[in-house]
Each structure stands twice: as structure tokens, then as C-alpha cells.
Amino acid sequence: MGRLSNPAADFTHACDQGLRGRERRKDVDAEAAWPTGPGNRQAQRRLGRADVEQLIAAYKEGNPVPQLVARLNVNRTTVLAHLDRNGVPRRQTGPKLSAKDVAQAADLYRDGISVAAIGHRFGVNASTVGKALRRADVQIRPRRGWASA
């Protein structure tokens, strides 16, 4: 009595792992209770008021969002949502390349230097250089081995 005649594989696996609903039993260690694999959802971490205040202070001091994400072990959208909810203005990121840099990159590109090499020289991704050159109406060469359009 009290047993299912045809338990589903997931249910059987959950019982074997010590899971009961979304809670884990106290006598099973955390690794066995929360298997990691495709389809498993990340556990939500809620920040307390003290954590949120610490987050806001650190952001206002100039700490970048990725650093705060790592420090608090939460998702990027969680950090940004807390900042928005508390009326903290976001730092605006300016262009990665100044107008002077774009002009210099255009000259280098016309001299035959690759977009990747220019990106490396300026410390930005090649796609950033390519976008800046296109905005500056620089004719982009076709990639090697690709038919020109």
C-alpha cells in the first residue's frame, strides 16, 4: 500500500536522491540532493536588505557589474534590477573607440592591416573595430576565401 504501481523514472530518481518536492532531506548531502545536469534550474538567491545596500554602495564606488555579480553570486539581471528598484542611475558606457581612434583605425585598415590586428592594437574586439569602420563609411574588404557580394 502507498506505492505507485508504475512510478515515473524522474519520481524514482528523485526519491533515490532524497528529494521531496523542491526541498531536500536533511540527511542527504547537498551534492546528492541537487544533481547538476541539463534541465536543472539554478537555485534562486535572494538578497537581504543589507546585501542590497552593500551592492548599491559598491556600485556607486565604481565597481563594475560583473564584479558585483561574482561577489554576490547572483545573476547580472538581479544586480541591475536592484539598482533600478532603488533609483540608482546606471553608468553610461561611452564608445569604445574615440573619433580619433576610429580615424587612426581607418588609416591602418586602408594600409592593409586586418580588423583583428587593429582591434588588438586598441584593446577592443575585432567586431567593435568593424562596426566603427562601417559607421565611418570605410569600405570593408571581403574576407579571405569569401565571394564578394
Features:
149 residues; mainly alpha; two-stranded antiparallel sheet; 8 helices
Could you explain the architecture of this structure?
The protein contains eight helices and two strands. By secondary structure, it is mainly alpha-helical. A two-stranded antiparallel sheet has the order 1-2. It is flat, with a radius of gyration of 26 Å. Mean pLDDT is 79; it is low at 24-30.
Describe the structure in brief.
The chain is mainly alpha-helical and 149 residues long. It has helices at residues 9-17, 30-33, 49-60, 65-72, 76-85, 99-110, 115-122, 126-135; strands at residues 19-20, 23-24.
The number of E-state strands comes to: 2
Order of helices and strands: HEEHHHHHHH
Number of domains: 3
Instruction: Indicate the overall shape.
Output: flat
Query: Average pLDDT value?
Result: 79
Quaternary class: single chain
Strand order within the widest sheet?
1-2
End-to-end C-alpha gap: 72 Å
Number of helices: 8
Approximately how much helix is present in the residues?
Answer: 40-55%
Q: What class, by secondary structure content?
A: mainly alpha
Q: Could you tell me the radius of gyration in angstroms? A: 26 Å
Please give the largest β-sheet.
2 strands, antiparallel
SSE topology sketch:
Elements: H1 9-17, E1 19-20, E2 23-24, H2 30-33, H3 49-60, H4 65-72, H5 76-85, H6 99-110, H7 115-122, H8 126-135
